[in-house]
Specification:
By secondary structure, the protein is mainly alpha-helical. The chain has helices at about 20-25, 30-40, 50-75, 85-100, and strands at about 15-20, 40-45.
Length: about 100
């Protein structure tokens, strides 16, 4: 029986960070007040032209890269132009298609 294994996972965080200290400048609140009630210390914001698909694409690229690194570490004969390369190409094509649909 063949078992499935997760070879790599990925995530992506937008660059723009808004901390509780930043919010203190905008409204009457404090870092402690927000932290005690929500457990949140910072938030991430994306520009208006960035979609969930863009974020998912970057996370998928990171996961694919980690999976490729795992493949190369385990098996030196892992092909450089095999399903991994196709996976990245297909991901780019799918992302472009989704952007046209929105």
């Amino acid at each position: 029986m063949r078992l499935t294994k997760i070879a790599g996972t990925g995530h992506f965080l937008p660059d723009r960070v808004i901390t509780n200290a930043d919010l203190e400048q905008l409204v009457e609140t404090s870092d402690d007040w927000i932290w005690e009630r929500s457990g949140i210390r910072e938030r991430r914001f994306v520009p208006d032209d960035v979609t969930n698909t863009d974020l998912a694409t970057e996370a998928s690229r990171a996961g694919t890269s980690r999976a490729m690194a795992c493949c190369y570490r385990r098996n030196s004969s892992c092909p450089a132009s095999g399903p991994w390369t196709y996976g990245i190409s297909a991901l780019d094509s799918y992302t472009a298609w989704l952007r046209r649909m929105v």
